[in-house]
From TrEMBL:
<dbReference type="InterPro" id="IPR040198">
    <property type="entry name" value="Fido_containing"/>
</dbReference>
<protein>
    <submittedName>
        <fullName>Fic family protein</fullName>
    </submittedName>
</protein>
<feature type="domain" description="Fido">
    <location>
        <begin position="91"/>
        <end position="228"/>
    </location>
</feature>
<dbReference type="Pfam" id="PF02661">
    <property type="entry name" value="Fic"/>
</dbReference>
<dbReference type="InterPro" id="IPR003812">
    <property type="entry name" value="Fido"/>
</dbReference>
<dbReference type="InterPro" id="IPR036597">
    <property type="entry name" value="Fido-like_dom_sf"/>
</dbReference>
């Protein structure tokens, strides 16, 4: 399942280090696409060009403050992910809460980085997230899984399952999807993979694969979706090395 990805990554690794400005432009391109798509999946109406303008510090007329903050916050959250990777820090609940705090900063400060105290439902999904009093226990179970059996998984499978398990728990009132996609990329980037972009065009397939994972514990469709996105990102990096 991961043979082609491993071959592509080995090829990319053999061409490293990439030129400084090539690497900078790749980072900027992926930061924009990651931010645009992750927010668009959650209903943000800014176009990719409008998102670019907001990242440059300009406001877009007719768009809400929340939509602007979602862009700015996401950029800050990506910077935090890069910092964790650079420092080689192990994943912790503290990091997860910090990531979420950045995602929701200025949007809903009372719930930023705080596990929810109310029942929530995922629109269009069969899966119902756990009751609030079960969240801490389920997050701890996820962390135990991550620190034990997950270590033997391929990084792409581990990242995909971390995303799926986390978003199934849905520990926060809002911002779970964005935080889950940040965690997915945190896991990939730790292992030297470029970040992946779950595209808004694949939103239905993405939601269906997650709901299948949550209701039947069959993660195969979701892992396959992530594999496809990983290949796209590696191919983008390889395209500048030939």
């Amino acid at each position: 399942m991961f043979k082609e990805i491993d071959q592509k990554k080995a090829l990319l690794d053999s061409k490293r280090p990439l030129p400084k400005y090539t690497l900078k432009s790749l980072r900027e391109k992926l930061l924009l696409e990651w931010t645009y798509n992750s927010n668009a999946i959650e209903g943000n109406t800014l176009t990719i060009n409008e998102t670019k303008v907001v990242l440059e510090g300009i406001t877009v007329g007719g768009k809400t403050l929340r939509e602007h903050l979602e862009v700015i916050n996401h950029r800050e959250a990506i910077s935090y992910v890069e910092e964790i990777v650079h420092k080689e820090e192990p994943l912790s609940q503290w990091q997860i809460k910090n990531l979420h705090r950045l995602v929701l900063k200025g949007i809903d400060d009372s719930y930023a980085g705080v596990y929810r105290d109310q029942q929530v439902f995922i629109s269009g999904a069969k899966h119902v997230p756990p009751a609030p009093f079960l969240i801490q226990e389920q997050i701890e179970q996820m962390m135990r899984w991550y620190q034990s059996e997950a270590k033997s998984l391929h990084p792409v499978e581990r990242g995909a399952m971390l995303h799926a398990i986390f978003v199934g728990i849905h520990p926060f009132i809002d911002g779970n999807g964005r935080t889950a996609r940040l965690l997915l990329n945190l896991e990939l980037m730790k292992e030297g993979f470029p970040p992946v972009v779950i595209k808004v065009a694949n939103r239905l397939e993405y939601y269906d694969a997650l709901d299948k994972a949550h209701t039947s514990k069959d993660y195969s469709d979701f892992i396959q979706l992530v594999i496809t996105e990983v290949k796209d990102s590696i191919n983008l990096y390889l395209s500048v090395t030939t």
